[in-house]
Amino acid sequence: MNDHVQTLDTPPSAWQRFLDSHLWHSFTKDRVAQFSLLIFVAYAILALLAPLIAPYNPYDPAQIDILNAEMPPSWEPGSDPAFWLGTDAQGRDLWSTILYGTRVSLAIGLCAVVLQALIGIVVGLLAGYRGGRIDSLLMRIADVQLSFSTMMVAIVVLAVFQATFGTELYQELAMVMLILVIGIAEWPQYARTIRASVLAEKKKEYVDAARVIGLRAPRIMFRHILPNTLSPILVISTVQVANAIIAEASLSFLGLGMPVSEPSLGSLISSGFEYIFSGSWWITVIPGAVLISLVLVMNLLGDWLRDVLNPKLYKG
């Protein structure tokens, strides 16, 4: 009898609470969200395992033969069964370059969003909790940052860096530069959202109780207020990863992104654009379709999360 009572009094595990949550219930009912997550997970697994899955290494010059350049996909006349998606203008297997390119694009997108979130969360927490002149100063800085588009800032910074330090050094640091530029350019999105949440949270009783018992401001902000603002952060992050991938692809298309020797989806699209009207459409179209589908499923996931995590849209 005592064991039975103890079992009834045992609080549910974190996994059980998740299975009982509205988030999981909504996910089991939403076929679009399930399909989008499945596609994204497939992209992530293929990108992560690219060195094991790809039949060729596009970074290894010994595995590239210029005589294989511009071979069509397997369903086109004149194709080679060894290259089922064809080859690019350098003779690289397109399937292999897409796997490695997706890996690079996802890495840049995820790392840039982590940088955005770190800066934006710190600024938003500080502005919302402290208020006054600190709030005004930080939000004016965010307003100035928002007045410049990400692409404009990235183009200016990357072009100046490339002109100052040379193309060779830029190509070595291309991934780091893209992460820094995209990350720093987009932090106000997080800062403004977190600030709005903090302004609402800091008036609640648990924050007053934390102050009364003598907890310091940094602990209150990061240990007590921040966990209650994670819902909007999750929604923003999903959309921002897609935006970061698009920004990287756009910069690569303009020649300011990843070098051709280290393919990303954007650099693949750019490298094949000049051949699209000569008949070698697959060099640009297939990586372009991969990029569009990746961004689409991430935006669909972001829309679903926004609807689920917004209490005003919850209909019980």
UniProtKB/TrEMBL annotation:
TM segment ranges: 35-54, 104-129, 141-163, 169-187, 233-260, 280-302
Keyword flag Membrane: yes
Matching SUPFAM superfamilies: MetI-like
GO annotation terms (biological process): transmembrane transport
Membrane topology, as annotated: Multi-pass membrane protein
InterPro entries hit by this protein: BP-dependent_transpt_permease, MetI-like, MetI-like_sf, OppC_N
Compartmental location: Cell membrane
Residue ranges constituting the ABC transmembrane type-1 domain according to the UniProt record: 102-302
Family: Belongs to the binding-protein-dependent transport system permease family.
Record PANTHER family: ABC TRANSPORTER PERMEASE PROTEIN, OLIGOPEPTIDE TRANSPORT SYSTEM PERMEASE PROTEIN APPC
Name of the protein in question: ABC transporter permease
